[in-house]
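Example record

One chain of 277 residues, shown exactly as stored in the release files.
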Amino acid sequence: MNKKDIGRQIMIHLRSVSINSFKTNSDSFPFNIPIFQNLDELAFTAPVTILVGENGSGKSTLLEGIAKAAGLITVGSEDVDRDPTLLAIQPLVDALKLVWTMRIRRGFFLRAEDFFGYIKRQRALRQSMADEIKLIDRDFGDRSDYAKSLAKGPAISSLQSLDRRYGADLDAQSHGESFLTLFKSRLVPGGLYLLDEPEAALSPLSQLGFISLVNEMVSKESQFIIASHSPILMAISDALILNFDQIQISPVNYDDLAHVKLFRSFLDDPQAFMRHL
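Predicted structure tokens for this chain:
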């Protein structure tokens, strides 16, 4: 094993997940999904793991279960413990066993659909603070400037903190730009990041920018587990690609992926596909 490989091994904080079969009911969701009936232990052997499979294969459900079992914060419209869309996976959370190299709580869980909810939440927070400042100006109309500044201090400080982290306004940017701004602002070295279909907010060029950020954080001892349909993200160097389209989850080479073969065939001759639609 060379020095590069040794360094990458240190970055694998979450080593594996498994399911306690005594806590499962194969007739109920999510254990009625085939991959959960055959999941003994799933090992993460690289700093970046890509979960690949068709919709309904269970990759997003597993990612949600890991996020909740790990207690990661959620970048979304709701916190992980209060998100109603995650209530149905609680039986999976209770059955999961997570094995760590070192237990960490740095990082976050992000679903593409929650990204827009997060922006809405930040917009509401910003508007609330702006309204508070206007209210203080009105109520303190006959008070000194010093008294006004003291009263407005917390709200102004919070607005400035948002601006430092995200820029003046995430809404003013394109979806791809705001996603990358948000993503970069929340990354810290040595974190665990669980991402569900991040490509949904990104153009192909922005996906390359996203990969650059991932590579940078891998060099700073971070770990990523990403569910994706994007052949671009699947090409991340040295990533472990896990196929969810089989009865049992198994590693697969990039060139053997059905997604990759389909995209290559389509790009070689798009009209051949169009003629059969």
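Notes: The radius of gyration is 22 Å.
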